[in-house]
Amino acid sequence: MKNVVIFGSTGSIGKQTLEVTEKLNDFSILGLTCGKNIKLLIEQIKKYNPKVVCVQNQEDAKEINSAFPDLSVYFGEEGLLQIVKENKYDILVVATSGIISVKAVLKAIENQKTIALANKETLVMAGDIVMEKARKYSTPIVPIDSEHSAILQCMNTFDNKYAKNLWITASGGPFLNSSREDMKNFTSTEALKHPRWNMGKKITIDCSTLVNKGLEVIEAHHLYNFNYENIKVVIHPQSLVHSCVEFIDGSFLAQMGVPSMHIPIQYALTYPKRHEGIKSGSFVPFGKTLEFFEPDFKKFPLLKLTIECGISGGIMPAILNAANEVAVYKFLNNEIKFLDIEHIVYNQIEKAKNISNPTIEDIFEADKRVRKNLEAIKL
Question: Which end of the chain, C or N, has fewer beta carbons within 10 A?
């Protein structure tokens, strides 16, 4: 029986992780954390009986502590740090959004426990720092993203020296076949209608701009120590091939599966072993036509910009990430139009001055500065 802590248990990945643990029966839920969805967290506490929880603010922590007096209850970023310092878990699932868990992940690496990573900011903002520390402490970081899980599965039995290119697939999102003119007037409701995947709102909007795919390129660079020129993006609307690896002999090895996050979540939890899955597959869907074509960088310019920020390194990925996150939530709140997301991100990148080899404090300061710059913006 392995003890699991889930950062972000009330979000999409967190909820599906709990479903996977129920199916496998090999895992005990030691800790749960969430932001503001206290009602759902309370339901999870009753069902999974964790030993420790963490919430966003002190008032909610008091409410939960009153209802569950035997439960250890923390709050805020310090609360996440306290949980990982306890060092009683086997696997830490990081399914939060945003930067709140980055410092806790850095601390958790020192415990040499498996980190199942779904949080993009950890590697996008601080990939060099995180991976250097992971190598120092020999801490396994296993990706939950379907694309990175696919690459891991393809690379698992081969030495990296035999791999030439990583091919990351993208569905193309809800606006794949729309024109730039049409995209000007798309609403958040339309942008949230992803054709293949059921995900949280933020990541779904990122899929509609293809920013998400650029962020995945940055993550792949850090996870697999590949040069950016050897990481390719390919549009694959059917979302059945989740990514593939091209080897030096000209062969390609692809990982396929139905579009379900349960599969990569389970692989991260059981890595490197496999177990009977929560989702049973069928080879029938793979008989359909599988399409692959190059992304349109003119139609989706943020994909190119995101990759360029990854290549620049330093604090540029953090600046892009912060600007994009603020812009996405403004769009979701109907404060700006869809293409204004691009304008906001480009504006912050153009004004930014990079810092080579930044500290974690430099990265967090850059993030904070961008968010402050965008507080009052209205378009």
Answer: N
CA distances from 333 to 168, 189, 206, 329 (A): 30, 11, 15, 6
- C-alpha angle 209/323/117, rounded to 5°? 75
Cα separation, 149 vs 156, in Å, equals 10
Find out whether 219 and 123 touch, Cβ atoms under 8 Å. Answer: yes
Q: Tens digit of pLDDT for each residue in 293-305?
A: 999 999 999 999 9
- What span, in angstroms and rounded, lies between the C-alpha atoms of 209 and 228? 20
Q: What are the DSSP E strand ranges found in the chain?
A: 2-7, 27-33, 52-55, 72-75, 91-94, 114-117, 141-143, 163-170, 231-235, 241-247, 252-256
Q: How far apart are the first and last CA of the chain?
A: 53
Extents of the domains making up the chain:
2-143, 148-311, 313-379
Asked whether the whole model's pTM tops 0.85, one would answer yes
Class (C level, CATH) for 2-143: alpha beta
Instruction: Write out the CATH class of domain 313-379.
Output: mainly alpha
Listed in sequence order, the residues at least 6 apart from 158 whose beta carbon sits closer than 8 Å to its beta carbon are 245, 247
Please tell me the distance from the alpha carbon of residue 7 to that of residue 1, in angstroms, as a whole number: 19
pLDDT bin (cut points 50, 70, 90) of residue 173 is confident
Structure tokens at 364: 């967090």
Region for 264 from its dihedrals, namely left if φ exceeds 0, alpha if ψ lies in -120 to 50, beta otherwise: alpha
Residues 156 and 272: beta-carbon distance below 8 Å: yes
Cβ atoms 325, 203 nearer than 8 A: no
Helix 38-48 with 58-67: angle, nearest 10 deg: 40
pLDDT number for residue 200:
78
328 exposed, middle or buried (CB, 10 Å; 0-12, 13-18, 19+)? buried
Task: Give start and end residues of each alpha helix (H) in 2-158.
Answer: 12-24, 38-48, 58-67, 76-85, 102-109, 121-137, 146-155
